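Reopening this one. Same input as before:
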Amino acid sequence: MLKDILQTHKQNTILVGKINRYLISKNGTDASHFDGTFHPSMATSCKRQLAYVLLGLNISNIGAKLRRIFDNGKYYHLRVQKYIKKMSKAGIYGIKLLTTEERIGPTEDNISSQPDQTLIIDGLKYVLELKSINDHGFKELMGVSEGYTDQIQLYMHVTGIPRTLVLYENKNDQEFKEYVITYDADTVRKILDKFASVTKANKREILPERECKGEYEYKAKHCNYCSVCFSEANFKDIVKMVKTLREEKEKRKKDRAKERE
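Same output, byte for byte:
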C-alpha cells in the first residue's frame, strides 16, 4: 500500500493524485468482514484465508481505480433499490419490498449476511442480488458464474428464501439481464462443511493446510494473504499480528483526534 501511495505523489495532477491517495488510505479501515463470523462472499475462499479472516487479519490491497469501480457499483445498488422501494410503496406491479441490506446473523453456522434486498414479486419470495458489469462482459454473459452462485446459495440458506433473482446492469448503456438461481442443499452443505473445518482448526489453534503449491500460482498471486501464507507465521504469530495491527490502528486514531483538538 505504501508503494501505491508514493506513486500518487508522482502524478503530475492538481486533484487526481490527492483523490487516489485518499482512496488508497481507506485500505484496512473496513472491518465489516472481520467480525469473527463467515460471510457469503467467503464461499469460495480457501480454508487458510478463511482462518486468517476469522482471526481478524485484515489485509486489504484495493487500488484507487478498483475502489472507484466498487463505489460506482454501490450507486447502482442505491438506484435500483430506490426503484423497488417506490414501486412497493405504491403497491404496483406485484412488488412488495421486505428488507434492504438488512444484516442477518450470526446464524448457528456462524454466518452473517446482508442481502441487497428481499422482496415478493407476483406472490413469490426472492433474494435480490444486484451486479453491474462492463459492456464486453455483459454481452458475453450467459448466466451467473459458479463462484458467485456459491455466495448466492449462502444468502438463500441464511434467509430461508429458496430463490434468488440476480439483476445485471451494463455499465455502458444501463441494459438489464436477469437470472434466477434456486436453492441447492448439496452446494450449501459443502460450503458449511468447509466453514466448520476452519472453525475446528481455529479452536485447536492451528492453521489449515495451505492449498496453493507455490506463490506464483494464479490464485496465490491474486490473494492479499499470499505473503503471510507463504511465511513461517503460525497460528499464534497471526494472533499476535492481529493484536499489534489493532493497537497501531487505535494509536493512529487517537493521534488524529489529538491533532484535531
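So the earlier flakiness isn't reproducible anymore. For the record, DSSP finds ten helices and five strands in the chain.
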